[in-house]
Amino acid sequence: NPLLDLDTDCILDVEATPARFAAEVAATRTLVSRAGTRLGIEPESLAADKAYGSGPLLGWLIDRKITPYIPVIDRSRQRDAFFTRDAFRYDREADTYRCPADKPLGYCGTKRANQVRVYRSHVADCAGCELKPRCTVSRKRSITRLVSEDARDAARALAGTDAYVHARRRRKRIERVFGHLKRNLGLRTLKLRGLAGAAEEFSMAAAAYNLQLLARQAAPA
C-alpha cells in the first residue's frame, strides 16, 4: 500500500500487508499516522476506492479533520421484496426512524459485537398497517444503524460535489504509479520472502520512483 501526494505525485510512504481487506484498511491508518509523525504532514483529504469506504475508517478520517473522498460501502439495499432502510427517515434529534407510514421506530439497544444500533416499531402500529406486507413478516419491523453511520452520511454528502469528482479523477494517477512500479521497477514479482522482504522491495522501488520524479522535474525544459 502506498501513500501518494497527488499534488506532486511523490510516494510519501509504503506499507506491506497480507492480501486481506482488513489489513489493507488498517494500513491506511498506519500510513496517515506516520505521515504526521515522520514528515509533519497532516493530509487535508484522502481519495481511495470503495474497498476503503467502511464506517470505522471514514469516522477515523473525519475525526482527524481529513475529508474522505471515498465511495461508501452500502449493503442496506440488499433485501428482497421488503422496504429497505432507505425508505425509513432518520430523525437525528429524536434518535428515531420514521417508516413509510410515518410511524416511529425507537432505539432499543446496541449490538456491540457488530457495532450496530437497533430500532424497532410498535406492534400496534404494524398490526393494522396496509404497508405491512411490503415491510415485514414479523409482528414489528426492526432496522439497524451502524454506530459509525454519521461518518458514512458525511461521506455520502460529499459524493457528486465538484471537489469529490476532481479528487476521484486525480486518484486514477495512483493506478499509473502502480503500473510504473510493476512494469519498470521490478514489482511485478517479489524476490524477497515474507512481509519484511516485501516492505524492503517496495521501499526501494518507491525511493527509485521518487528519484526518477525529481530527475524529471530538475531536467532543463
Strand order of the largest sheet: 5-6-7-8-9
Looking at the overall shape, the CATH architecture of the largest domain is 2-Layer Sandwich
Shape: elongated
Q: Pairing-aware structural class of the strands and helices?
A: alpha+beta
The sequence of SSEs as H and E is EEHEHEEEEEHEHHH
Q: How many structural domains in the coordinates?
A: 2
The oligomerization state is single chain
Q: What is the CATH topology classification name of the largest domain?
A: Nucleotidyltransferase, domain 5
Mean pLDDT: 88
List the total number of helices: 6
Distance between the termini: 33 Å
Strand content: 15-25%
Features:
single chain; 221 residues; alpha+beta; Nucleotidyltransferase, domain 5; 5-stranded antiparallel sheet; two-stranded antiparallel ribbon; 6 helices; 41% helix
Provide a short characterization of the protein structure.
By secondary structure, the protein is α+β, with helices and mostly antiparallel strands. Helix content is 41%, strand content 18%. The protein folds into two domains: 2-71 and 159-218, Nucleotidyltransferase, domain 5 (2-Layer Sandwich); 85-148, no CATH class.
How would you portray this structure in words?
By secondary structure, the chain is α+β, with helices and mostly antiparallel strands. It folds into 2 domains: 2-71 and 159-218, Nucleotidyltransferase, domain 5 (2-Layer Sandwich); 85-148, no CATH class. Helices cover 41% and strands 18% of the residues. The protein has helices at 21-39, 55-63, 123-127, 149-158, 162-184, 194-218, and strands spanning 2-5, 10-14, 45-47, 67-69, 89-91, 96-98, 104-111, 116-120, 142-146. Strands 5-6-7-8-9 form a 5-stranded antiparallel beta sheet, with no helix packed on it. It has a two-stranded antiparallel sheet with strand order 1-2. Helix 2 crosses helix 4. The radius of gyration is 23 Å and the shape is elongated. The two termini are 33 Å apart.
